[in-house]
Amino acid sequence: MDEFVQAHKMKTITTTMESLKKHGFEALFFASREEAAAHIFEMAADCATVGIGGTLTVRALNILPRLEEAGKTIFDHWKLKPGTPEELECRKRQMTADLLLASSNAVTMTGEIVNRDGCGNRTNSITFGPKKVVIVVGRNKIVPDLDSAFARIEEVAGPIRSASLSRKTPCVATGYCMDCDSPERICNVTSIIHRKPMLTKITVILLDEELGY
Ligand code: SF4
Questions:
Q1: Is the beta carbon of 184 within 6 A of some atom in ligand 1?
Q2: How far is CA 190 from CA 51, 89, 116, 145, in A?
Q3: How many domains does the chain have?
């Protein structure tokens, strides 16, 4: 990579980490998913239960099989049939897990964590409930400010996630958000974590990789 591109990339990450720390979050940087997975595994040492949101980023770390092998109970609603009582219960258990693993739609260089959910299980569980919350973020999700975060959600994350779920929403056709009234809409709850929530410790892991939508 060109040295100036590399320097700019690291400046972006460093600025984001400084802003997150000023806002009361723990902010860590890892160059690879393997290093991030190793750190998360250490953080899980005193945790019996682990909740996981609907995140491709965390799954890409291949951390879940390791946690299962270590005897942790994993609350992963993706393994259950959507709409069943078991799936609903699993989403609820995520909110009181010892460790909650999630990603984010966008993290700003000014230090905010921004998410838009269909159900709200992620936006709920990352703000209150679990003993520890870890949010894993690829460098592709770092944006300058809140306006850019919403733009990312509406121009990238929402349309791609809708397509991946085979939703019949207008953004799948246009490539950008139409603020639809579709019954298959996936954007129903928006959360901005401006500062560390009073009763929840949040660790943001920034990764020098492009991961997730
Ligand atoms: S609100 Fe509708 S159109 Fe916009 S991103 Fe969400 S699902 Fe797509």
A1: no
A2: 20, 22, 4, 16
A3: 1
Question: 53 and 118 in contact (C-beta within 8 Å)?
Answer: no
Backbone angles phi, psi at 212, to 5 degrees: 70, -175
Beta strands in 23-94 (DSSP E): 26-30, 49-52, 73-76
**Would the CB of 160 count as within 6 Å of ligand 1?**
no
Q: State whether the beta carbon of 177 lies less than 6 angstroms from ligand 1.
A: yes
Name the helix (H) or strand (E) containing 209: none
pLDDT beneath 70: ranges in the chain: none
**156 assigned to some structural domain:** no
| Lateral strand order in the sheet of 201-207 | 26-30, 201-207, 132-138, 99-102, 49-52, 73-76
Query: Who's near 52: CB < 8 A, 6+ residues apart?
Result: 58, 59, 64, 74, 75, 76, 78, 94, 100, 101, 102
State which ligand 1 atom lies nearest to the alpha carbon of 186: 7
Q: What pLDDT does residue 124 have?
A: 94
DSSP structure class, residue 155: I
CA–CA separation, 31 vs 33, rounded Å? 7
Domain CATH for 46: 3.40.50
Task: Please report whether residue 212 resides in a domain.
Answer: no
**pLDDT per residue over 46-99, tens digit each?**
999 999 988 999 999 999 999 999 999 999 999 999 999 999 999 999 999 999
Residues of the domain holding 35: 3-108+120-143+189-207
Among 87, 118, 105, 104, smallest CA distance to 185 is for 118
